[in-house]
Amino acid sequence: MTEKIFWINPYQTELASTVVEILNNKIKLSATIFYAESGGQESDAGTIGRVKVIKAEKDGKSIIYTLESIPDFEVGDEVLCVINWTRRYALMKLHFAAEVVLELFTQNYPSINKIGAHISENKSRIDFDWPENINSLLPDIQKKAQALIDSDLNIESDFIDRVDERRYWKVEGFAKVSCGGTHLKKTSEVGNIKLKRKNIGKGKERVEITIAQ
Ligand SMILES: [Zn+2]
What we know:
Helix 2 (85-108) packs across helix 3 (138-150). A hairpin with a 4-residue loop joins strand 14 (193-199) and strand 15 (204-211). The protein is α+β, with helices and mostly antiparallel strands. It has three helices and 15 strands. It folds into two domains: 3-83, Beta Barrel (Elongation Factor Tu (Ef-tu), domain 3); 87-211, Threonyl-trna Synthetase, Chain A, domain 2 (Threonyl-tRNA Synthetase, Chain A, domain 2, 2-Layer Sandwich), CATH 3.30.980.10. Bound molecules: zinc ion.
C-alpha cells in the first residue's frame, strides 16, 4: 500500500519518501504526494528522485510510477518526490468547480443523468444524458455555482472508510459527495467560472467549465 499524503495534505508539493519497489523504470514509494488518475482527475506531473514521471497509475491500494528512464536509486533509498503545483492547483480548482456544477444539476434537475466527466488542466467537462439543448439551463446553474464559490465556505474532506480508502467531500448546507480526488479547503479558491455547452450528438449534452485567469 502506498500512503497517500495527497489526501492528508493536498497542498504539499514536495515529499521525501522511500522506494519500496523497482522494476526497470517502474517504481513504488512508501508514501506519495503524486496523484494517479482516478475519478476523471488527471495524474500529476513531476519528478521522483529528479527523474521525470511519465505515468502514474493505481494498482490496488498502491501507485505505480513509470519514470522517463531507469533510475539510479535503489529499493530502500530515500528520494524526493516533487509535483508541478501550478498544474495540480488548476486541476483541484477545475475538479471542484465540476463537482459543484454536477451537484447543482442533480439537485435542480433530479432526472438528469451524468454519463461522463473529465478534469484536465485547462477545463473540465461533464456529459449528460438530456433530451434538450442544455444551454437554457446554464445561466441559472452558473449563477448558483458562482454564488456558492463566492460564499467562501469550508470544504471538509475525509475517509468514509479508511480500510477501503473511500473518501468524501462535504460543504455544510450544500452537499456531501463520495470522491477520491484532491480537494480545496475553501470554495472561494475556485475563482470565476464559466460554463459553455458543446454539442456532442443527439440526446447527449456536454457542459465545459473554465476558470477566468
Ligand atoms: Zn472530488
